[in-house]
Amino acid sequence: MTRTRLHGATRTRLHGATRTRLHGALGVLLVGGIALATTGCGSSDDGQSDDGTVTITVNGLPPATEAANHQRFLDNVAEFERQNPDIRIDAREGKMDPQTFSAKLAGGQLEDVFYVYFTDPANLIAKRQVADITEYAAEFPVVDQIRPEVKRVFSDDDGRLYGLPYKNYSMGLLYSRPLFSQAGLDPDDPPTTWAEVRTAAKRIAALGDDVVGFGEYSKSNTGGWHFTTHMYSRGGEIATNDGGTWTAAFNDDTGRDVLTQLKQMRWTDDSMGSRQSLEWADLLQLMGSGKLGMYLATADNIPTIVNQYDGDFADYGLGPIPGGQGTLGGGEGYMFNAKASPAKIRAGLKWLTYWFTSPERIEAENKWAAENNLPVGLPEPQIFTGAAAETQAAADAEYANVPQENYAPFVAAMDDIPVKLEPPNAQQIYAVLDVAMLKVLTDRDADVDQLLADAEKQVNAILATVG
């Protein structure tokens, strides 16, 4: 979801849900807010002092209440400045807020490098509110090893680059390995089709009256978020853009398949449990209690289940999204103030590539994370290719403190499943789609066609405001 700076260790805009995004050692740092952005004040000067020192402002500094992350951030700033005595970093708390962005830019208060979600760059690029860093990025070879589909999020239609990613995520099937074994299912071979999910859910639910085979959301925008994931997994769309005009696209056979199967699993199979109207934390808690077989999730749900809901890393597996025709993904990264000088852009890129884009840093961060009992070895983020990806994999394996073999099915399918981003005005759309999800899970007589038609009208009204 679009986390409201909560679907992650901060509000990672997860569809109205809150979660602690800890993606591997690197992700742990960055998600915790440790990753910093090179943000500058948007002044028109080049940021250089008389002695040639360049000062850049950056955001993402964790609050002092996050003592370990806060100090780790400052330690890395100090080390970077030691290695680069001609650069000074003015680190600041906070991240990009779309509601105040334009005012900060106009008022000269926007940082030189600032944090964005994957849903933000296209609009900022179109409005020319960010700097083109293409020529400067060419000076940093590691940028060429960023996965093309991830780098594309920060590029325009001509391939010009305006920022760098530091973390990404995608949805898969999170499941209970003990319940799979008890139900006679192979915990190393999770379902890869929705028909297989339905069959497995029935077998798991048959283990006892209090066991849920498959869990689903329908409240606080999480239902619409998961409906979107279901649609993408079957090759469908939530909205399409034709010449700049967005239109709802879910009132079709794919949308009917999504709601019809959930309705059948709930009322015909009785494999989804009687308790419904669930939101983000509910399924994590249920999984932690050992009473839930499967649900759609990202890898960072696992440490939250373990740390907040008494789970055990050994109990959880992660498989690819069923259907495999697409999966909902997202992430975060940093972009550059349109007013930033060349000197500031170069300094910012040097910081970013030192801090989180450089594979050489991963081993140190993994070591730090492991020493601080943070999970190392989760299957996300995955932002590199080639030698950089190999470096990350080796560092993850060296310091892994989670059972990486449990996530092998997810990793094996990762490169073959297209990752798709959220629709525009996602949170408003998810709120509308919550209604359809809740209805089919709480009313055995729910009219799927009518629910989709009603949602389509409302979503088209929302999309009409996109501009």
Averaged pLDDT, please? Answer: 88
Distance between the termini: 21 Å
Q: Approximately how much beta-strand content do the residues carry?
A: 5-15%
CATH superfamily of the largest domain: Periplasmic binding protein-like II
Please give the CATH class of the largest domain: Alpha Beta
Q: Give the domain tally.
A: 2
- Indicate the CATH architecture of the largest domain: 3-Layer(aba) Sandwich
Total count of strands: 14
Q: Residue share in helices?
A: 40-55%
Summarize the model shown.
This protein is of the alpha/beta class and 467 residues long.
Please tell me about this protein's structure.
Strand 1 (3-5) and strand 2 form a beta hairpin. This protein has two domains: 3-169 and 330-414, D-Maltodextrin-Binding Protein, domain 2 (3-Layer(aba) Sandwich), CATH 3.40.190.10; 172-297 and 424-463, 3-Layer(aba) Sandwich (D-Maltodextrin-Binding Protein, domain 2). Mean pLDDT is 88; it is low at 2-44. Helix 1 (24-31) packs across helix 14 and helix 9 (222-233) packs across helix 17. The protein is globular, with a radius of gyration of 22 Å. By secondary structure, the chain is an alpha/beta fold. The two termini are 21 Å apart. Helices cover 40% and strands 14% of the residues. It has helices at 24-31, 67-83, 101-106, 121-126, 134-137, 148-151, 177-182, 194-205, 222-233, 253-267, 280-288, 301-308, 342-357, 360-371, 386-399, 408-414, 426-442, 448-463; strands at residues 3-5, 11-13, 54-58, 87-91, 113-117, 163-170, 172-176, 212-214, 239-242, 245-248, 292-297, 316-319, 327-336, 419-420.
